[in-house]
Design goal:
Jelly Rolls; 5-stranded antiparallel β-sheet; 2 helices; 12 strands; mainly beta; single chain
Length: 193
Amino acid sequence: MAAASSPVRLVHPKRFGDERGWFTEVYSEKAFEALGIPVRFVQDNHSLSRPVGTLRGLHYQTPPCGQDKLVRCIAGSIYDVAVDIRRDSPTYGKWVGAELSAENGLQLFIPIGFAHGFVTLTPDVQVTYKCSSLYAPAHDGGVRWNDPAIGIDWPLPEGVAPTLSPKDEKAQFLKDFVSPFDYDGHPLQPLEL
């Protein structure tokens, strides 16, 4: 688990295995509260991305409809990223990322005030994520996935250009973004892998 002061957290659910396979508890409100993540989730999303290099992001929802997210990959693997977009944060525009896969079972908790995105590393990837607020189209926003001011090192295979939605191709650059998110005193820290 990442340091308690870091707002973005890599979660390592325990797996209990035997000759039949394994079992894991991926979410328990009580267990997450004990980890310092006291969030109630109200919506689950599930996506399928067929081609390698499908890139979704960088997305957020503005207040009062901001979304905390708990992301996991249930088929294949992704590189999952969170970018600090909280005004006055000393880590504004900085990012962290981790590989999430069906094999490793890791989850990434991304709180309100961070833009989220991922790129698929394998074909036919399925991702599920919990959200603390319902989808609100009027509050939906994005920052450009390849903004040089952020400088995300997307691990795209050599010669593979990302597959993007029209919305993500036209997302704004960080320099044009006026953040509605407040800094809470907890700077972004590196993830404990």
